[in-house]
Target: Aromatic ring-hydroxylating dioxygenase subunit alpha
Amino acid sequence: MAHWYAACRGSDLRAGRPHAFTLLGRPLVAFRGADGQPAVLEDRCAHRHAPLSSGRVCAGELQCPYHGWRYGTHGQVTHVPALGAAPPGVAGVTALQVCEQDGLVWCWPGADAPIGTPRRIATHDQPGFTRFIMKTRFRGSVEACLENFLDCPHATFVHKGWFRSPTAQPVRAVVTTLADGAVAEYFDEPRKRSVIWALFAPRGGAMRHTDRFIAPHTSCVDYEFPSGLAYNITSTCSPVEGDAVEVFTVMSFKFGWLGPLVRLAFEPLSRWIIWQDVGMLDRVAANRARHAALGALPRVQSTAADLLGPHIAAWRAALTRGDAPPAAGQITEATLTL
Ligand code: FES
Ligand SMILES: [Fe+2]
Model:
């Protein structure tokens, strides 16, 4: 079953420039038509298979760099320069269904008609939020990426001092399975001695923190503070090919009129933290490959502290097999030492 996947950021489609990307092993190209709407075509000229992404966009049409054939947003050939026209009966290239929403261009890679529209980013229309979108290439499975984004225990090691420092305090966590995934809510969470907490919660106080997996390939981390400050990190994964995953992370934070100023510090800090995760997952993937070369890898071992990883794996395995997804309404509790 196909799904909507993020292809690129809307800002990646600059005037006159096609944008090459790969999704699920398919080389694709995105560009904006004359009406400003995005289009996604397979990245292969129908004439001699030159990559259309190395051409240019002329008046909303994509022009091949080899003999200048032009394509419209539906993949149809609109002009063959050597003939001065478009000959009838020449097949064009496949165009994918596209939707631009919440700063991202989404595409539907299936041959069937799309189901619904891409899921909205929760904070996108709320007032007072400042947003930016990061695009990051990870090495690993979609499951490994999503688990990493929703996993608290790694933060005291990988992001020690930047996002979370160990306090050895118990934190109660409640995991609830939902109709579209699963959510973990944390209670009495310590948050001391880190750069992020100094920025967002300098005076402490109770906060609300949830980590949510939204099937099939999105994670959503939400923090709300008593001061009214909040931040939301929504990440959506687009499999590229092999073990590469393109992750689009929409960072939204509520800091009122100070938001654009806070962004100056928050954006480089967010990039630094995400690169710490890229580095860790890269080492995991490389190590798995080395050991897999010696024979079958043993199954990974999970404990009660791995709150959402098993739910992510179960959901995605069910979707792959075409089985019914895990039941909603199951509640489990765990106490983590963070
Ligand atoms: S290969 Fe594209 S126009 Fe010839
Ligand atoms: Fe992380």
Q: What stands out?
A: The domain at 5-108 is CATH 2.102.10.10 (Rieske Iron-sulfur Protein). The chain has a mean pLDDT of 91. The two ends are 38 Å apart (CA to CA). The pocket of fe (ii) ion (ligand 2) is lined by residues 148, 154-155, 158-159, 277 (CB under 6 Å).
